[in-house]
Amino acid sequence: MEILLLYFLFLNIFVFILAGYDKYLARKNKRRIPENTLFLLEAIGGTIGLLLAMLLFRHKTSKPSFIVKFFGIFLIQIVLVYLKLTDKI
Fold first, then answer.
1. 15: buried, middle or exposed (CB in 10 Å: 19+, 13-18, 0-12)?
2. Are 14 and 49 in contact (CB under 8 A)?
3. Of 21, 40, 46, 50, which sits 20 to 30 A from 68 (CA to CA)?
């Protein structure tokens, strides 16, 4: 259990930093981190880090397609956690 918590902690810190770096790259008009990379990291547990980065850096918050995909992944995670907690999977 402790390893799992460390995994989520480090992953969310990494995603937060990566999203902040992507915002920096956007401001400098440089090559960006692909959205699919951010979505993959969110899907494997980096949701909180990405959400905090979006709110703090105001990154991707004005892009509706990103918001929809972000919350779609978040909703799937909520459903999976619910099903696991109720012993349905």
1. buried
2. yes
3. 21
